[in-house]
Amino acid sequence: MGLGQAGVRLFLFALMAFCEAQRRTWETEGASGALRDLAGLQPRVRKPAPAGHGPQAPAQPNVSVRPQQRFNLQPNLPPNSRKPVEVQFHQQLQGPVRKVTWRFPQVPLKPTAAPVPFQMREPVSANSVAAECGEKDVYVEVKQDFFGNGLLLMPSAITLGGCGPSGQDVVANVLMFRSELQACNSIVKMTEDDLIYSFVINVAAEPHLDTPITREDGASVYIECHYLRKRNVSSNALLPTWIPYAATKVAEERLMFSLRLMTDDWKYERPSSQYYLGDVINIEASVTQYNHVPLHVLVDRCIATPVPDVNAVPSYSIIENHGCLVDAKVTGSSSYFMPQDQHDKLQFQLEAFKFYQDKSGLVYITCYLMATKASAPSDAENKACSYSVNRWTAAFGDDQVCRCCDTICSLRKGRDVSSEEFQISLRPLSIEDPIDSDLVQSSIENKATLT
């Protein structure tokens, strides 16, 4: 019984040793057999460990494995096919590859639009307000087409300092206002020389009928009435202790000249010295005769400067060469002498201008006046000549005297009344560009003597 059990155990031990030897042979030879065939290597047989080194392993049966008995791990391939390792190796030895020319598509650019020929329209002054300052009141006319766009404003939308219109011209669509100088919320301001009353024309914006829109905005126009402070207004009697200036002039038999801005109808002195480019400036030269025989007033020359100094630079000669109005010939303007109907008055028109790059817009005009007997004929130095249609014409007398205007007019040997010239200047002219000015804003100055 004991021998049988010992034999069974020995058999199991031998079987386990055989299985372990087969497993190790598989791991060392079977898995790397294919690689050794490619490299031309022989399978390596493990040698037993020499005696005396390390623990002795249990006795194992001597099992030899022939190379032909190795397991073939490669799949069955056709005869002409290549092994996977050879295929990979062959791909690595291929020639140069064509460069990739493909690119990501680009986003198309938006074409640039051509420039549009457009020019902004500049606003033009509507000239819808006119004012006249009297000694005690102010009179104002306002067009109902206030903005010049063809739309008539309601009378209730236009007030003079809160006061409504006192009249209306339904044919001309004009509203009329009249107010005392101290009424309609006027503002009084006093300077060293002037007493100024200021009024405001207010235009309220109103929607069109029952709609919430409007095509005109509100606006304000300021009006100023200037009155010179030259009289004593106290109630005490004033006894002069000097000889009146006019009486002195008469006694000395000297002449009194004047140079004034006139209204369009030449009836009154123009109260304002403000003009716009393109306006016509009416100028009147005159002489007071007193006890003299009838006199003929002459404008010998006129010079314009941007400052009060007549010798300043730059300067512009308007009349020269003893009465030749050269502005029309030099600039092609419409300036000319009016036909002379009265000997003691000489009138001429000057087209408004301003000095280049002068931001003030002020123009100072100085003229040199003289007088001769009215019965004396015109000559090269006693004339008033205008240039029009490529020729010179005289305001009085024969046109032949104007021929020297293109050369040099000869000097006179003597004068009938006085060989002296009288220098006189206009008050400063304010010339503005109508495009640069506000659409409806205006400032009207009227000067009168306070009595």
TrEMBL record:
<dbReference type="InterPro" id="IPR017977">
    <property type="entry name" value="ZP_dom_CS"/>
</dbReference>
<dbReference type="Pfam" id="PF00100">
    <property type="entry name" value="Zona_pellucida"/>
</dbReference>
<dbReference type="GO" id="GO:0007339">
    <property type="term" value="P:binding of sperm to zona pellucida"/>
</dbReference>
<dbReference type="GO" id="GO:0035805">
    <property type="term" value="C:egg coat"/>
</dbReference>
<dbReference type="InterPro" id="IPR048290">
    <property type="entry name" value="ZP_chr"/>
</dbReference>
<protein>
    <recommendedName>
        <fullName>Zona pellucida sperm-binding protein 3</fullName>
    </recommendedName>
</protein>
<dbReference type="GO" id="GO:2000344">
    <property type="term" value="P:positive regulation of acrosome reaction"/>
</dbReference>
<dbReference type="Pfam" id="PF23344">
    <property type="entry name" value="ZP-N"/>
</dbReference>
<keyword id="KW-0325">Glycoprotein</keyword>
<feature type="signal peptide">
    <location>
        <begin position="1"/>
        <end position="21"/>
    </location>
</feature>
<keyword id="KW-0165">Cleavage on pair of basic residues</keyword>
<dbReference type="GO" id="GO:0035803">
    <property type="term" value="P:egg coat formation"/>
</dbReference>
<comment type="function">
    <text>Component of the zona pellucida, an extracellular matrix surrounding oocytes which mediates sperm binding, induction of the acrosome reaction and prevents post-fertilization polyspermy. The zona pellucida is composed of 3 to 4 glycoproteins, ZP1, ZP2, ZP3, and ZP4. ZP3 is essential for sperm binding and zona matrix formation.</text>
</comment>
<keyword id="KW-1015">Disulfide bond</keyword>
<dbReference type="GO" id="GO:0005886">
    <property type="term" value="C:plasma membrane"/>
</dbReference>
<dbReference type="GO" id="GO:0032190">
    <property type="term" value="F:acrosin binding"/>
</dbReference>
<keyword id="KW-0732">Signal</keyword>
<dbReference type="InterPro" id="IPR001507">
    <property type="entry name" value="ZP_dom"/>
</dbReference>
<keyword id="KW-0964">Secreted</keyword>
<dbReference type="InterPro" id="IPR055356">
    <property type="entry name" value="ZP-N"/>
</dbReference>
<comment type="similarity">
    <text>Belongs to the ZP domain family. ZPC subfamily.</text>
</comment>
<feature type="compositionally biased region" description="Low complexity">
    <location>
        <begin position="48"/>
        <end position="61"/>
    </location>
</feature>
<keyword id="KW-0472">Membrane</keyword>
<dbReference type="InterPro" id="IPR055355">
    <property type="entry name" value="ZP-C"/>
</dbReference>
<keyword id="KW-1003">Cell membrane</keyword>
<keyword id="KW-0272">Extracellular matrix</keyword>
<feature type="domain" description="ZP">
    <location>
        <begin position="132"/>
        <end position="392"/>
    </location>
</feature>
<dbReference type="GO" id="GO:0035804">
    <property type="term" value="F:structural constituent of egg coat"/>
</dbReference>
<keyword id="KW-0812">Transmembrane</keyword>
<feature type="region of interest" description="Disordered">
    <location>
        <begin position="45"/>
        <end position="64"/>
    </location>
</feature>
<dbReference type="InterPro" id="IPR042235">
    <property type="entry name" value="ZP-C_dom"/>
</dbReference>
<keyword id="KW-1133">Transmembrane helix</keyword>
